[in-house]
Model the fold of this input.
Amino acid sequence: MLRTKTKRRLATTVATVITALLPMTAMAAKTTSYPADYQKIIDAGKKEGKVVVYGTTDTKAVDPLVKDFEALYPGIKVEYNDLNSTELYNRFISEVAAGAGTCDVTWSSAPDLSIKLVNDGHALAYKSPETASLPKWANWKNLAYATTYEPISFIYNKRLVAANEVPKTHADIQKVLSNPKFKGKMVSYDPERSGVGFMYIIQDMKHNKDFWTMANAMGGAGMKVYTSTGAMMEKISSGEALLGYNIIGSYAFMKSKKDPSIGFVYPSDYTTVMSRILFISKNGKHLNAAKLWTDYILSARGQQIISDKADLFSIRSDIKGETTMATLAKQLGKAAKPIPIGKETIEYLDQKKRLDFLNKWQGAMGTAKK
Amino acid sequence: MTELTVKDLNVTLGNNHILKGASLDLKKGEIVALLGPSGSGKTTLLRSVAGLEYPSSGNITIGDRVVYDGASKIEMPVDIRALGFVFQSYALWPHRTVFENVAYGLKLRKTPESEIASRVNEVLGNLGLGQLGDRHPHQLSGGQQQRVALARALVYKPQVILLDEPLSNLDAKLREEARIWLRQLIIELNIAALCVTHDQAEAMAMSDRIVLLQNGIIEQAGTPQEMYETPRSLFVAEFMGTNNKLKGTVETAVGNMAMLVGDGWALKGMLCNQHKNKEAAVAVVRTERLALADGPGENRLQLPLVTSLYLGNTWEYVFDLNGTQLRGYGPLPLPPGNHWVEIPAAALWIF
Amino acid sequence: MKNMSFSQKLVIALTVLAIFLPIGLLLYQSFLDAPFFQPEKSLGLDAYRFIFEDPDFKKAFLNSLYIALGMGIISVPLGTLLAFLMIRTDLPGRKWLEPVLLIPVFVSPMVLCFGYVVAVGPVGFFSIWVQQLIGSVPWNIYSMKSIVLIAGLTHVPHVYLYSSSALKSLGSDVEEAARVSGAGPVRVALTVSIPMVMPAILYSAMLVFFLGFQVFGLALVLGDPEGHLVLPTYLYKLTNKLGTPSYHLMAAVAMCIVTLTLPMVLMQRYLLRNAGKYITLKGKGARQATLPLGIWRWLAAAAVFIWLLITVFLPIIGVIFRSFVTHWGEGVTLAEAFTLGNYTSVFEQGNLIRGIVNTVLIGVVGGALAGICYTLMGLATHRKNNGWTRAFDYSVMIPRAVPGLLAGLAFLWVFLFFPPLAPLRQTLFSLWLAYSVVWLAYGMRLISSSLLQVGPELEECARVTGATPGQVDRHVTIPLIKYGLLASWLMIFMIFEREYSTGVYLLGPGTEVIGSLLVSLWGAGAIELVSSLSVINILLVSVGMGIALRYGVKLHD
Done:
């Protein structure tokens, strides 16, 4: 605890300097202004009594947010449903189609599925008063909001991988893969079975001009692909695998706090940054409460908890701490590459495009296997 | 008064025609035995009356109630036919005491508790089970179980009681006693009883009339005496008693008498079927009608003795007639050698 | 439907509705090219065309077939033999063995497999020990062979359950006759006892074959590293392969599995066409005597122990070990990694606590309710052999042919699009209904094997005495199978405790259950919580089982 506090204080001082330097965070300087009639929304929200959230963040991480929100707005209960991104999508569209009660807010780590839902007209337009404090790209047409700023990292086993062996860039990955020590010892998401894994790999393809060379090297070194983050981290921690590629930074960060075997790196050439996307469902029954929740999640108060207690990364530049955009910006500079929010997010939901990529990927992976 | 009428009853199970047009009737205070070898359809007939099998056509009437009629599609469920049924295995409910087993039928008939107690105790007392009300079936002997099963079937005073081989699970001694008191009981209660058995001695001892079935058809029905003394077919003749069987050809038939001629012998007998001259036939004679004779005479043969067996109350002799064994009884042991044997013409039934 | 009362018809109608609403939805969905509830959709065979052209489907199908057959080949003989040893012989330690060997029935296969990874995975503690001993690890738990072996061994108890109850009701006179004729214990088992309980064995073989197509947790944990795809994981793949979930493809896969069940059931019928020759199994009171094993006694005990070691102790120790450490692996000592934190954090989380409470609820209360429903269905079809009951027998198998996850989705649709049920969607009832339908085949068989032990004349006698069919059930049949019903309750309790994939779509805050929490924790990386929660679950079920056995529930009556 003490360690974190000191760090945070340090970060505070640094962050003030950094914010001025970075154009992306420049907006944070503007003050947040809530409309005069905001109390109306609060009253209506209290009348509604609850807000139903479908989210992919695990309940334990969300719990502090829920408690704080309920303290802020007594009388509004948060019903948080922990689902994986596919379940969330399935449940949402089924419930909407049936005209049955669905959630008021979705909060998902699969930007493509979220944006597809928004694009299909399921989102309620709402301009959050907090918008001004967010990066510009984080508000998509007042329909969907990026709420976190989570780097996609490499993770490794600290006991078994020497400091000089740890890859720092994507180019290093290729080097590492030629080392027989790592043969069959690298793990990543299976883009065929994991929607988020697919998303991250597509970002790699965009940002890394040597992507297919790297993919071939991965296949050649017998990289193993999984669907579960937990399984991958467990394997790295135990030494069954040594290196994890494209692991969500917030999970790695959380795990490394408890598990001395886990180390992580944000690649310095570019680091994909993923955001949890939140939107208000048009078919929700508690729309005022949903607005309150949205504003709360985006607010400094909510974001501070996201950073400090939920072990996610705050997207606001005015939030200080180890897991914030501000700190990341300091570490990564321009190397941070947020996954864009918008039409291009769902580019690869096109069947043909997706299957073409997957076929090519399978080809790369198969180079060594058979 | 007729309590039960079965008319032209047919039962089929899949492709199996089990009962082919059986008819019978049963009067108050009368016991009718359904007799037959296994697979003859006797149990099916009994269960059809109870409503446990589903006939394909025919009619069953109990008292004045039509409980089954194929033509008008009447089929009364088993529970309201109000019959008594004693199962071969007794089917005592193992989770209930003797009292509860017997009382169940009364409970179902919503009889007041006090009346149930008195009636159950009365029937248990009558059957010599007075002290056993609190026991569970597995604590009883076979004979006691059998009486509990009977008590259970009688306690609600059914018009008709159906018994499925009620004595077959008892040992031989007990069985002979049981059939006497069972008959007395039914006559005393003045109810009608239909009883399935495969044992012709038991059928004759217990019942007023016997219905003999074979392959789903009633071969013959009548009083035990008629069945035993004037069988209408070879099957009935053979089934009803212990017999000697002779094969030969019919010659010089005059009226209802004819000569049966075999290999080196000729005997006069009663013609029970139409036979042409020189036609092959089988003759049956009850073992007890074979008598020793003091010398040659009509319908007498001199035969070698194969063996004589001591049965306690009598001796059984076995003679040889050119490869056919003939058996008879007598009070004394016979010395080995040839003996004269007489078969009365009236006792030799030619089929 | 001759001799069927209105209430019996109602029970059958409701059951058929509960089965065919979700299955029918899936069938319909499989012939569409978009979600059935969306306006732009058209009928066609595109879904089938797609999966039949997809090489992954073929791969997954063949792997699943391989697993199903392998499981059958391993678990049926072993389960039957185990039942013979436990029920008929003087095997040492039978009393305490019975509850222990049922552990694989109620521990989620995902957890069990994870335990295997911790124990005998590439860097598992047992593997490292073996490596130090002989220089290398002579096995690879991620290979297809290991998957089949583990699947087979962990399904031995399923076969055991059915064969043992049949063996229990087999009079020992037939065995004694064989002994007198000069047969040794092994010969008696192979030539007399086991052939006589063939119907039960065939049934369990069929159930195991079905479950072979459901192997999901196992394939997820052990199949991922080497990319072994099976049908349920292929379903997962289909969810993401096209970006958005492709229900029509998933439904088509499910229908392929359902179609497979038809020849299976017909084959079972064909094999059992002369079921009359097993007539000795009728009625109760067959005298039981144990068969002395002689020199085989300790050999058999050793074999059972080895099976237990591999199937139960090894993975369970792995899970328990994992629940007490922060991390593990080559070079990590227990002393440095030991923690109780995994347990304290379970009790700090409201949803996990609720999950535990709900799991107990759905196991105990839900299990009882399901037992009651199965009993009603069993009674409705009891001793009736007509087209309806035969169709019914087949129908109850179908839900188990649909992979749990998809069955769960289908139930979500039923609760969404079938108005009478809509208000109950967000309650534990929805979960209970899904569980009950999915496990119909398992539960019905437990009940009907009890029912068949009641001599028919006991019921007929009550009918003649004047009882209506309902009164016969209440006064005679049910009291007579009381112990069988209690044992079935225990079995249903166990299987409900462990069920996971079916519930995923029906859960909400307040209706979490351990099984599904495990899946979501697994996904999010909280493996230590998965372990401690599993240990808690195993303890819970053990306590439940202990109480039940202590207070007179016999696994066999």
In short: The mean pLDDT of chain B is 91. The CA atoms of residues 73 and 279 of chain B lie 48 Å apart. The helical segments of chain B are 42-50, 98-108, 113-126, 142-154, 172-189, 200-206, 224-229, 234-240.
